[in-house]
Amino acid sequence: MSLEQRIENAKITRDALRGDPITGDRYYSKEFAQKEWDHVFTRTWQIGGMAAQLAKPGDVITQAIGAESILMTCDEDGTLRAFYNACPHRGNRLVADEQKSGVKRLVCAYHSWTFSMDGVVRHVRDADDYPQGNPIGKMKLKEIRCETLGGLVWFNMDPDAPSLRDYLGVAGELFDRYQTGNWVRVNWLTGLVDCNWKIIHDNFNEAYHILSLHRELGTFIDDAHQNTEFELYENGHNLMKMKGHQPSANARATVVQAPLDAILQEWDLDPAAFNGRPRDTRVAIQQQKRTLGPARGHTHYDGLADEQLTDYHHLTLFPNTTLTMSSDFFQVLRPMPHPSDPEKCLFDHWYMMPPVAGRDEVDTPVGRRKFEAAPHESFMHGEASIGFVADQDLSVAIAQQKGLHSRGYQDAYLSGQEDRVRRLHDVINDYIAGRR
Ligand code: FES
Ligand SMILES: [Fe+2]
Question: Which of 389, 409, 386 shows the shortest CA–CA distance to 193?
Fold first, then answer.
């Protein structure tokens, strides 16, 4: 069966949306946040880091999610594993660092229990002083599921979860097409934001706000919903395909605007040639990228369809991850639940780019950067930019968090192009109610 056929089979229509109420308490109630933790976050696949961070024996990374910390290791044989980052002696968090290399043994800071990279206890002081038996070789860190896909490491706390491939379904196959296995994370940003994680994720589930918050994007992205394709998949993931490298159908200008003019020149096209027909740029750029791209080092273009050379395909993975895919970069946009406060979240923004011969500097959402794996930059929202577009998105997040507390707000009144918002809440309720 072709991928197209599998996509057709995976799709659901708007009629399948129940339209469960999207009430304000979903964004601030501790009880509801606990239900999400128990039934959603502890049962779904999450990205834990870049596979490149665990490429060598002795590499160790950690990823926070809610009140948990997940520890991932690469052992001498190159096997990757994920564990809860908690010492089985008396619960101390075992590894404090976000990434380490050259680790031979993991040593707990409290009583020095020592673990090999497969999580097994290898050394304990006074090991014969344990009435219930010597823990060496018997006790282990509690292991959870770990897989890699697309240059990313993923974990799942549910021992009964489907494989990552089965969980993602066609969304995983669509991600595969970009061949991101060797792409480099040139921005690794996390902002602590005073809003529930769903405020940010709802935002990435619709493009209705673009004309309000990101008007300038209309110079090179067609945000008109009539020209945008939306696909909802039965498994809770979804896709929005926005045409790029052409102005919005809502834009009035009859000549090419910045930054599209510079992109045309980069691909040896004359912006003036498109006067009066600026929306013809998309196909022209596709042809140039197809013809000139591989010789310029963009060898992965060969695996992409014409539309993928210019368009933005937003793959939204249930529950909280958006992969914004394009031929020249992809982004992980992911609000993580806060350890204790449903009115806060930790918003991750990763920006990945493919290696291209001769590439040593690149333009990123936070400025020009060296083309290399970035260090982690964590900050309070507002202290630094988390990317100019994401900053605009966050500009309303805190006000929305406040408004959702109002007695005047009862339920969302959604447009058709916000179906993916509707879908997120329906699927969360499915998980909580045990229907999935
Ligand atoms: S808590 Fe880790 S060795 Fe005691
Ligand atoms: Fe936005």
Answer: 386
Q: How far is the CA of 110 from the centre of ligand 1 (A)?
A: 5
Helix-strand-coil split of the chain, %, nearest 5: 30, 25, 40
Q: What is the identity of the amino acid at 180?
A: T
Residues 361-408: pLDDT tens digits? 999 999 999 999 999 999 999 999 999 999 999 999 999 999 999 999
Cβ pair 390, 384 in contact under 8 A? no
- Strand-pairing partners, residue 303, are none
Residue 288: exposure state from Cβ atoms within 10 A (0-12, 13-18, ≥19) = middle
**Residue 102 confidence (pLDDT):** 98
Query: How large a percentage of the chain has pLDDT more than 70?
Result: 100
Q: Please, which pLDDT band fits residue 68 given cuts at 50, 70 and 90?
A: very high
Question: For residue 87, which atom of ligand 1 is closest to its CA?
Answer: 2
Q: Which residue among 83, 84, 107, 113 has the greatest number of ligand 1 atoms within 8 angstroms of its CB, and so is best to mutate?
A: 113
Domains by residue range for the chain, with CATH: 1-42+169-436 (3.90.380.10), 46-160 (2.102.10.10)
CA dihedral 360, 361, 362, 365 (to 10 degrees): 140
SS3 call for 248: coil
* Distance of CA 91 from the midpoint of ligand 1 (Å): 7
Indicate the pairing of strand 345-353 with strand 80-84.
unpaired
Q: What is the pTM of this model?
A: 0.97
Q: What is the pLDDT of residues 189-204, one digit of tens each?
A: 999 999 999 999 999 9
Q: Indicate the residue type of 65.
A: I
3-state class of 362 per DSSP? strand
Burial class (CB in 10 A: 0-12, 13-18, 19+), 427: buried
Contacts of 387 (CB under 8 A, 6+ apart): 187, 189, 349, 351, 365, 366
